[in-house]
Amino acid sequence: MPSAGTQVPVVDIAPFRAALGTLRSQRQGADRGGACAALPEDARRVAQQWREAFSTYGFCQVTGHGVPDDAIEAAYGAARRFFSLPAEGKLRCDLGKGYGFGGFTAQGKERVSATASEQPDGQVLGSEAARPPDRVESMVVYGTEEDLVPSGVEGYKDAVHGYHDGMKQLLKVVMALTACSLDLDFDYFEPFYASKTAEGSLRLAYYPAFEEGQEPLPKQLRYGEHTDYTGFTLLWQDHNVAGLQTATDLRPPQGGLQVRMPDGSFVDCPPMPGAFTVNAGDLIQVWTNDVFLSNVHRVVNPPPGDRNDRISMVFFTGPAADTVVEALPTCVGPRQPAKYAPVTAGEHLQKKLFASNK
Ligand SMILES: O=C(O)CCC(=O)C(=O)O
Ligand SMILES: [Fe+2]
């Protein structure tokens, strides 16, 4: 049996990224259709690996993504400086609306496990859903001029907006790859993601260290069991133990992400050098009629005595709020009936956020 942590597959998307430019230039003026079939062998193999990863795990580690290290470092540094502010400095960015509506959310407000009973397949996670609030602080960034900019955090705005732009670029590749892996035209999803109401929010997450004598509440986790609510999530996991404080040194803290395996067990999904962890959210599962899974995951506490904190940069994506998400044409057929009622993207997200802030 492979050791824990090796089970979320790795996909190097570089060959697909290289081919995508050619596809785009061919598309201009060319007849529609068949664009993905024209991909070179190595890029088609990436699309196949992508489909396998999301069908089995709903997760993969993405290398060859093209996001520059310095953009990651800059955002990570800004996040660390923000979360190191005294509480008053952070609370000045709290809009008082709870998690998911911009700005800062302090510990004790969000209880993500309360959303888990509303998975698209109706499955309930039982007593796990009754966990106390998560041991996390969050700062949400939309990449617009409306974003709250904390005072006293040098370079914050440029760094987080630069990172947000980088994530939008990567998302374009992710959606083209998804389209090709589902036998759709590479630009199939573009209209859904072009709108201002498309989901594209960056959650900077801070999981404080457990200092001497501090214990979690009974059953409390850093972030409880849940599925992500919308499209793909592009996650940069902390590569560090506290003290190193750069984004890319690989000394993964213990007490991180775990992903549910097909047999129901949870395995560690530690950061890997230079990789983004990518997972599919509920709307992708509905869109693909279960071809891609929106899989359950959580962030566990570090072992007793481990004094490390943890920072994640979590980019949530999804189609425009008014998109009615229903089974894609290549994911239904006489022997593959649609399993879900159509869902409106914005309504689904609001329902989940409401449940998480109870
Ligand atoms: O911090 C992490 O590694 C994962 C966070 C997560 O699952 C989420 O924000 O939805
Ligand atoms: Fe998540």
Automatic annotation (TrEMBL):
Gene Ontology MF annotations: metal ion binding; oxidoreductase activity
Keyword annotations of the record: Iron, Metal-binding, Oxidoreductase
Annotated Fe2OG dioxygenase domain residues: 197-319
SUPFAM superfamilies linked: Clavaminate synthase-like
Similarity comment text for this entry: Belongs to the iron/ascorbate-dependent oxidoreductase family.
Pfam family, one: DIOX_N
Family annotation (InterPro entries): DIOX_N, IPNS-like_FE2OG_OXY, IPNS-like_sf, Iron_ascorbate_oxido_reductase, Oxoglu/Fe-dep_dioxygenase_dom
Name of the protein: Fe2OG dioxygenase domain-containing protein
